[in-house]
User: Which sequence fits this backbone?
């Protein structure tokens, strides 16, 4: 049974809420990931006392959130996008900067809905719509609209709007496709009136009432299913092999990878064991199989958006072809993950093509072969995908991104070694 680092998405949200909560926020099982360290650094810069020991931190706001601070978001897109909304709602000015990868990623997708909510555009981005960003104080005293249709299926964009509205007024957001709902679940667990209703065609309507106050809270962060996927995926491609992870988030908005494994013929056993921070938490056991090809519909993609490179790599070893549909969002991740995934599979000799926004994977890749070099563009999920596929095919892998998995999953290699030994 593998103990996982805490979920990165929930860690970002819980840490950022310390800027709004009246009492202290105490978190345990904080992942030692670079992204979450960026978020802890951001709230510290904005006026929260951060007392961190190991994987535990107590976050206590000293007073009002600071104005006119420069916040370094590092590599963390979730931090940058959620912070736009949260600071805009609070009416703070700030400057947001990031590393080279984050500074190439689109930010208008998050700032535009916030501008529509407030009825004024308070963010100046680079001419490319990227960081660095200058955020001015809002002058609006209420929301310009109480209903907003979002055009990008992105939990980061949705959460930016929710965190903005939290300090200003009641809001209804309509998503084209339901995306991860950790913000809604965490807020709901703190007593905020927030409701998610499914819409025909796979969308969702989120209704949130502005709370009078937000209490402090204590949360043991549940394990990250997107990290777990790399360990479970290693066993999934070996007939009869077993891997188990415990205390992991079991949200239906995060279990798309497990559903895809089942479609590919893998035996997946999920056991809910409790609830924390509004999330169902439990264990997942996988028994590997000779994989068969799958057809992944576009509306499933948000539920496994970070696991697509790994899934494509696994399916390259399947007995038949696969099509993964509607992957447009992968082009704007830490790298262009559509192109990078295709390049990765090809580096191993696999046959994969990009057709529009789809990946078509031929399958049939078999163990054996010489060492292989993979260019991962410093993308942590590509780096881990290359390692897992190398193990499955028994090939020695070199990359140009060794160690960059620490962005989301420090300690990944020893845990993968543990799964390997137990196969
Ligand atoms: C995240 C949402 C996803 C995901 C990212 C984390 C979040 O991005 O890729 O790693 O915490 O909200 P999008 O919602 O923009 O697709």
Assistant:
């Amino acid at each position: 049974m593998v103990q996982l680092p805490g979920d990165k998405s929930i860690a970002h949200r819980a840490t950022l809420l310390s800027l709004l909560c009246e009492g202290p926020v105490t978190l345990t099982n904080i992942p030692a990931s670079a992204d979450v360290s960026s978020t802890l650094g951001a709230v510290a810069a904005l006026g929260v006392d951060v007392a961190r020991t190991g994987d535990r931190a107590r976050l206590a706001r000293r007073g009002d959130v600071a104005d006119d601070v420069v916040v370094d978001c590092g590599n963390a897109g979730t931090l940058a996008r959620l912070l736009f909304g949260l600071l805009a709602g609070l009416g703070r000015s700030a400057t947001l900067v990031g590393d080279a990868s984050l500074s190439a990623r689109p930010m208008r997708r998050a700032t535009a809905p916030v501008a529509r909510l407030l009825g004024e555009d308070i963010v100046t981005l680079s001419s490319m719509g990227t960081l660095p960003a200058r955020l001015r104080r809002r002058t609006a005293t209420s929301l310009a609209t109480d209903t907003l249709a979002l055009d990008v299926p992105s939990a980061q964009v949705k959460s930016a709007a929710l965190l903005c509205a939290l300090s200003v007024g009641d809001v209804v957001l309509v998503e084209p496709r339901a995306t991860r709902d950790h913000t809604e679940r965490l807020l709901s667990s703190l007593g905020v009136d927030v409701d998610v209703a499914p819409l025909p065609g796979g969308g969702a309507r989120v209704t949130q009432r502005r709370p009078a106050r937000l209490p402090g809270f204590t949360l043991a962060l549940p394990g990250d299913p997107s990290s777990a996927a790399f360990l479970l995926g290693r066993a999934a491609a070996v007939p009869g092999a077993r891997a188990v992870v415990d205390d992991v988030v079991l949200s239906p908005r995060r279990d798309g990878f497990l559903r895809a494994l089942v479609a590919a013929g893998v035996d997946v056993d999920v056991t809910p064991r409790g609830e924390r921070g509004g999330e169902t938490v439990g264990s997942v056991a996988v028994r590997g199989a000779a994989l068969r090809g799958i057809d992944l519909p576009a509306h499933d993609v948000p539920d496994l958006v970070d696991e697509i490179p790994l899934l494509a790599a696994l399916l390259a070893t399947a007995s038949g072809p696969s099509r993964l549909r509607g992957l447009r969002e992968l082009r704007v991740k830490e790298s262009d993950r559509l192109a990078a995934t295709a390049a990765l599979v090809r580096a191993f000799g696999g046959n994969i093509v990009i057709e529009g926004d789809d990946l078509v994977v031929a399958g049939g890749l078999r163990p054996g072969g010489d060492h292989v070099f993979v260019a991962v563009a410093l993308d942590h999920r590509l780096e881990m995908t290359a390692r897992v596929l190398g193990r499955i095919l028994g090939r020695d892998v070199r990359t140009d991104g060794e160690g960059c998995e620490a962005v989301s999953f420090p300690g990944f290699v020893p845990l993968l070694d543990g799964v390997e030994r137990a196969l």
